Amino acid sequence: MIQICFNSLFCDFFRSKHVTPPVVQIYTRGPGIYDRENVLLCHAKGFYPPEIDLQLLVDGVKFKDAKQTDLAFEENWYYHLTAHAPFTPQKDRKYTCKVTHQGETRSYNWEPDSL
Fold it and tell me: 9, 63, 86, 96: which one has the fewest Cβ atoms less than 10 Å from its Cβ?
């Protein structure tokens, strides 16, 4: 990790920050209804340090068309990142966002909207 220090106060601030895991949401752009084209999104926010890996999976396999936003920071120097992929949800498939931060991996499953 590259460390840039403009003054000792700035460096002390970053050295003192503790590891904060991300808060993760997995959702769709439009209503989450089977057999309708949509976009699957995985949003991770409020994490530190900034090194993180987001993967969108269908039945355990990476989406081939997945993209992600640039890593961005909030005014409190915590970070956020969003991965997204076009998809048409199928009833017999499992859609997951796999997040790895500081060596810990967690999976979050998408659930369709209830009718």
Answer: 9
Tokens of 85: 């992929």
Helix ranges (H only) for the chain are: 8-16
Judged by DSSP in three states, 81 sits in: strand
Place of tokens 């090194």: 51
Q: What structural domains does the chain harbor?
A: 19-109 (2.60.40.10)
Spell out where 1-115 has E strands.
23-28, 38-47, 52-58, 61-62, 67-68, 72-73, 79-87, 95-101, 104-109
E strand or H helix at 89: none
Cα–Cα distance for residue pair 101/83, rounded to 1 Å = 15
Taking only the tens place, the pLDDT of each residue in 12-58 is 555 556 899 999 999 999 999 999 999 999 999 999 999 999 999 99
Res 7 pLDDT > 70: no
Q: Is the pLDDT of residue 86 over 50?
A: yes
Whole-structure pTM value: 0.84
